[in-house]
């Protein structure tokens, strides 16, 4: 599935529709350059999951956790930009987060591509202009 959005608000609205279809155990792997809107998209996912819009970039924390109001699901937002090998990945606690109660959203997923599960949902975001983005979702029939 490919969609073009014309503003950050449209990106968030599209991501909300995707977030409503996610379930515990899902892993979202983002690809796309710096500033394409990966965190903006995650904000929309969070809203779609009913968690809210308090999402911030995990650049310095490596992972930010957002728990749903009922506590049943947690959105774990990773930034793998600085991860260069399996030892680095292990120190993030990445594998500990992979369970049926969590949804993982992974920025810079190309840095850990060999460690992603087989059923990963890939979201490629391409900047077309200042506010326009092409968003492609690959890997799950829920989003076809």
Describe the structure.
The protein is an alpha/beta fold. It has one domain: P-loop containing nucleotide triphosphate hydrolases (Rossmann fold), CATH 3.40.50. The protein is 23% helix and 27% strand. The chain is built from 4 helices and 7 strands; from the N terminus they run E-H-E-H-E-E-H-H-E-E-E. A 7-stranded mixed beta sheet has the order 1-7-6-2-5-4-3. A hairpin with a 5-residue loop joins strand 6 and strand 7. The chain is globular and about 40 Å long.
Share in helix: 10-25%
What number of structural domains do the residues give?
A: 1
Strand order of the largest sheet: 1-7-6-2-5-4-3
Q: Architecture in CATH? A: 3-Layer(aba) Sandwich
Structural class: alpha/beta
What is the fold-level CATH name, i.e. the topology? Rossmann fold
Task: Compute the number of strand runs.
Answer: 7
Number of helices: 4
- Strand content is 25-35%
Distance between the termini: 5 Å
According to CATH, what is the class?
Alpha Beta
Quaternary state of the chains: single chain
**Average predicted confidence as pLDDT:** 91
Q: Quick one: CATH superfamily?
A: P-loop containing nucleotide triphosphate hydrolases
Low-pLDDT regions: none
Radius of gyration: 14 Å
* Largest sheet, strands/sense/barrel: 7 strands, mixed
The geometry reads as globular
What is the chain-wise order of helices and strands? EHEHEEHHEEE
């Amino acid at each position: 599935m490919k969609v073009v959005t014309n503003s950050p608000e449209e990106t968030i609205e599209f991501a909300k529709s995707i977030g409503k279809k996610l379930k515990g155990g899902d892993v979202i792997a983002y690809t796309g350059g710096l500033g394409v809107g990966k965190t903006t998209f995650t904000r929309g996912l969070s809203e779609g999951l009913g968690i809210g819009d308090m999402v911030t970039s995990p650049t310095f924390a490596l992972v930010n956790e957002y728990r749903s109001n009922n506590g049943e699901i947690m959105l774990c937002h990773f930034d793998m930009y600085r991860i260069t090998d399996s030892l680095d990945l292990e120190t993030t606690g990445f594998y500990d987060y992979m369970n049926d109660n969590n949804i993982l959203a992974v920025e810079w997923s190309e840095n850990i591509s060999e460690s992603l599960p087989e059923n990963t949902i890939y979201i490629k975001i391409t900047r077309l202009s200042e506010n326009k983005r092409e968003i492609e979702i690959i890997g799950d029939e829920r989003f076809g």
